[in-house]
Amino acid sequence: MSTKTIAGVEVNLNDEGYMEDASQWTKEIGTEIANEEGIELTEKHFEVIEFIRNKVAAGEGLTIRGIGKSGVVNAKEFYGLFPGAPLKKATKISGVPKPTSCI
Amino acid sequence: MENTEKVPLKKILLICSKASIEDVYAALVMGNGAVMEGIETKLFFTFFGLDAITKKTMTKLHTATTGNPGMRMPGGLPFPTMLGGLPGVEAGVSAMMRKQMDALDIPPVDEFLELITAGGGEIYACKLAMDMFKLTKEDLHEEVSAVITVGDLYEMCDGPGTQIVFT
After folding, report:
1. What gap in Å lies between CA B161 and CA B138, rounded to an integer?
2. At CB < 8 Å, which residues of chain A contact B?
3. What span, in angstroms and rounded, lies between the C-alpha atoms of A58 and B3?
4. Where are the domains of chain A?
5. Predicted ipTM?
6. Distance from first CA to last CA of chain B, Å, rounded?
7. What's the pLDDT score for residue B74?
8. How many domains in chain B?
9. Which of A57, B54, B76, B98 is the most exposed place for a label (fewest CB within 10 A)?
């Protein structure tokens, strides 16, 4: 674990760079983490982030299939918004733990 | 000096040659998992594995109830092989298995293929097996990119960090 100042806030990160405390998250922090991942956040990104944060807050698991059926984006759009490893990147930017799902 | 540099997995080719639920899903889960990690992914279906990408059969895959030592009754008791051979038992067990998978948010085969291609994964069918089973491209699900030869498959294997897995 390490601490890092992101967007003026001191946050705790785990070894993989995921935030330890989701309640510390702000849009500014999300934007800065996204920049580090090479992603510039748009309104659509924030809609997805909101969906992810709500899901995690409700204690539900995250899958690409679930996000694809969320009504916010389909699976292809999700891959387009967070290219490469979308679930890993999107959760990191959303300030929630890395998902443990295999699908 | 010994070269200890680690080359991350960049490309994976998964070959599926069998039609049972477990064989097909092993390939689909690994393929989709690779796509999720940003790894270039190609799935190649051959022999009985073609059932998984043939429109008529893809959503009705079975698991073997005879000759399958891992088969158990719902309570965990052994599953008698004689019982597995009775008419309708394999179909019933397979339907139950598909239902349980659905409950775990594991998509049906056609939706799984769509999920893989949505992330940039590619699905191929083996030409030789297609000829053997007298199938045409029209019999296959629309997410199948092409019908290719084994030579085509090997041409796709270029580059460092590429692996082939036969399931």
Report:
1. 34
2. 61, 63-66, 68, 74-76, 78-79, 83-88, 102-103
3. 48
4. 2-94
5. 0.90
6. 36
7. 83
8. 1
9. B76
Task: Let me know if residue B6 belongs to a domain.
Answer: no
**Per-residue pLDDT tens over the stretch B114-128:** 999 999 999 999 999
Catalytically annotated residue among A8, A43, A76, A102 = A102
pLDDT at B135: 97
Residue B81 lies in a domain: yes
Domain range for B92 is 17-166
| Binary contact (A65, B29; C-beta < 8 A) | no
Whichever domain contains B99, its CATH number is 3.40.1260.10
In this predicted structure, the answer to whether residue A1 has a pLDDT above a threshold of 80 is no
pLDDT for A82 equals 96
Residue with tokens 């292809």: A76
| Tens-digit pLDDT profile for residues A78-87 | 999 999 999 9
Which residue type does A89 have?
A: K
**How far does B31 lie from chain A, in Å, by closest CA?**
10
Cβ of B37 and A85 within 8 Å? Answer: yes
Q: Report, as an integer, the average pLDDT of B85-90.
A: 94
Q: From residue A65, how far is each of A41, A91, B36, B80, B119 by CA, in Å?
A: 22, 15, 11, 37, 11
Nearest to B28 by CA among B99, B101, B130: B101
CA distance B163 to B12: 5
Q: Is B156 left (phi over 0), alpha (psi -120 to 50) or beta?
A: alpha
Model confidence over A33-49: pLDDT tens digits? Answer: 999 999 999 999 999 99
* E strand or H helix that includes residue B110: helix B109-118
Q: Is residue B4 part of a domain?
A: no
Write down the pLDDT at residue B37: 95
